[in-house]
Amino acid sequence: MPLSDPPVSDLDLFDDKVLIDPYPSYSALRDLGSVVHLPANDAYALTRYDAIRSALGDWESFSSAGAIGFNPAVNEALSGTSLSSDPPVHTRLRATLTANLSPRALRGLKDGIEAKADALVTELVDKGSFEAIDALARAFPLEVVADLIGFTGHVRDNMLRWGQAAMQVIGPMNQRTAENFPIAGELYAWCSSVTADDLAPGSVGRGIFEAEDRGEIPPGTAGHIIHQYLGAGVDTTIASIGNIVALFAEHPDQLAQVREDPSLVPAAFNEVLRYWAPLHVWGRRATRDVEVDGALIPEGARVAILFGAGNRDPRHYENPDAFLVERNPTDHLSFGYGPHGCAGQGLARLEAHAVVKALSRRVERLVVGAGVRVPSNITRSFEELPVLEVVPA
Amino acid sequence: MKIVLDRPRCEGHGLCEEAAPQLMHLDDDGELVIDREEVGDTEAPLANAAVRVCPVAALRIA
User: Is A134 exposed, middle or buried (0-12, 13-18, 19+ CB in 10 A)?
Assistant: First the structure.
């Protein structure tokens, strides 16, 4: 059967309205095809679950090298990182990155992280009302990551804006990207000059420099690793924790299920990630003419992976627009999949499970006001979410 | 059928153990141990579930 050109849509993935609520657009794109050509973004979007999962597993056809961002400057800036490389180079960089970040490296942290989450949630429940994004979704991961890496002083104060900027600049060269490049540059500059003495003794960050001194990782790579921890691990986790609060508030019956059966904590987080993907879009480049469901992606083309579209594909998930914790969608696409699967997912799970556990133990119901979303190129999250009333457990 | 582990790629996320505790487990160091490499038809669905859930594609069926 001859290959056909994919269907075309005039949708702009980075339009403000699409960024605020992409799900109607995702649905329309999925209906058009597994691959849809988007001239506005000079990209071929992957829209259906199977096509996305296959592409994420196939680094030989869908390269990350200089291809994950939507403007040349960010792809240049990320060159030489595991994020932006293919095997075999990627394999070595990834091992260096995950040596201190894999679940086996993090096992000792679980109890401490759970205690922190429980103390924070208990304090907020006692207050009775709070702004969930600042007081919980930001406060908790910022504290966990700062303590883990050993950030102190002005770096700690800059983590939020640096982390947000690092994600924004992955978008196309629009106003958001232009405004955030100088801020992402501050992060880059700091990471280029950071030394072991800048990080708290005994921290994982200090350990990365010690590994460099021992020759276990190549000279000069410790700063890159710190950069990736901050750039990739802050904004995404904040989005996920905000989404946990919002979805439990909106679906008290689902919170009640977790309260009745605490073994559903991991399932609840999987469903939160499936329902609202923290990352809107990520790039790849086709290394050859690739056929996807009979449609051709030409060699050299930019590919836009729409995690959230795949997560709501009715071909894969029954009743995909319903939020149901018992679904336990362990194969959701929000951490990506395969060689580039989120390197920090072990830490993300530790943090998010701790929050879900604490909320389900301390809270019967949350009454929230209208959440505020601000268009953002890559991360989709709440900017504000007022909790007006807590019904304690 | 046989469960094959790409050892360097495994990061110890442990989702496979949750899916198929009869076939594999993480040891005290967090390293994955495949307890039953050769699996028959009865365990095939479990083995497939473990392969499917690995977030970094470190498991496959041969």
Answer: middle
- The CATH number given to whatever domain includes residue B48 is 3.30.70.20
Question: Token pair of A251, please?
Answer: 């679906």
Domain that holds residue A175: 16-392
Test mutation, A104, A107, A333, A349, chain B, max B CBs within 10 A: A104
Q: Is the pLDDT of residue B43 over 80?
A: yes
**Number of domains composing chain B:** 1
Q: How many CB atoms lie within 10 A of CB A178?
A: 13
- Kindly write down the DSSP assignment for every residue of A246-272, as one continuous string: HHHHH-HHHHHHHHH-GGGHHHHHHHH
Q: A378 lies in a domain?
A: yes
Question: Does B21 contact chain A (CB < 8 Å)?
Answer: no
Quote the number of domains for chain A. Answer: 1
> Measured between beta carbons, which residues in chain A are less than 8 angstroms from residue B53?
330-331
| DSSP codes of every residue in A136-181 | IIIHHHHHHHHHHHT--HHHHHHHHHHHHHHHHTTS-SSHHHHHHH
Residue with tokens 């959701």: A332
pTM strictly above 0.80: yes
Q: What is the ipTM of this complex?
A: 0.91
